[in-house]
Amino acid sequence: MRYILLAAFACCLTTAFADAVDTNYEKDNTFYGTTPYIELANMPDLGACMPAHPAFDSPEFANDIVRYCWGKQQREDAARVEEAIADAEWDDLEKVYANWKEAFGLTVSKEATPKIYALLNKTLRTTDPTRRAVKAKYSRQRPFERFNDTMPSHEEDELRGEGSYPSGHTLRGWTITLILAQIAPTRAAEIYKRGMDYGYSRVIVGAHWQSDVDNSRMAASLLFSVLQTNADFQNDMKLAQQEYQEKTATRVRPLSAANKSTNAQVYAIDGRPVDGQTHGIVVSDGQKYIQ
Fold it and tell me: If we measure between CA atoms, which residue out of 129, 109, 126 comes closest to residue 117?
């Protein structure tokens, strides 16, 4: 009889867990307005991939403390604090993407750039949920909680008691960075800097330790590499690149034997014609390339 009761109890737990998963799945679909490229069960298990967060008595945690103090110092810069507060946005996706506007060179919105917006939403629908199990596994205390600090972004009530490791904002922010840099490779330097600063913003407001941020960038890169194997993602990326080029009047075309004429003239930076072995500007079929 005891075993029957235990089996029945286990069955109830399994059903309840499945219901919870299904509920989260539907909530995610509603929030992002789309289904994922790859189901969560088929994505890498970050809990198995990521190292544990630094122990309290480790040199790495000492660095976390130093970086926490650094973040507190950055609060003296009003403009940087304002940026960090903007970076704290989570629920309004257009506001989130707006944090890359200057670096990307284009405003991303559902109306203005539907292909780019759809690619970002579907990508985040795929990657964002991977953080939940790891947060629950480690339940790391956040900096503002450990030091009983206030947050410039006023997220205390929302974040208190939720695990600090990994950083969901950084996981998302670095994924956005990688996506936008692939769409607009000529602006990669500006986009990557914005992505780095986005992660630092979480240290500045006291939401995360530096190690949370650093390891989350690694996790985002891992997930991004998996997305590259998905045919639907690749197709949507091409559509987003085309949309970017149309909206910005740019053309991204790699220099290769396929698109470089055999008789193409090469010019030095100062405009002097040179031989084809010299680095310079190649003019081929009416297009300019850097060699």
Answer: 109
**Reading across the β-sheet that carries 287-290, which strands appear in turn?**
273-274, 265-267, 281-284, 287-290
Contact 149, 68 (CB under 8 A): no
- Could you count the other beta carbons within 10 Å of the beta carbon of residue 161? 10
Report the distance separating Cα 202 and Cα 150, nearest Å.
13
Query: Distance between CA 216 and CA 210 in Å, rounded?
Result: 10
Q: Which residues contact 57 (CB under 8 A, 6 or more apart)?
A: none
The three-class DSSP label of residue 207 is coil
Q: How far is CA 271 from CA 164, 268, 280, 283, in A?
A: 55, 5, 9, 11
- Using a 10 angstrom Cβ sphere, with 0-12 exposed, 13-18 middle and 19 or more buried, the burial of residue 64 is buried
**The pTM is what?**
0.80
Q: Are 224 and 178 in contact (CB under 8 A)?
A: yes
Over the stretch 65-97, which tens digit does the pLDDT of each residue have? 999 999 999 999 999 999 999 999 999 999 999
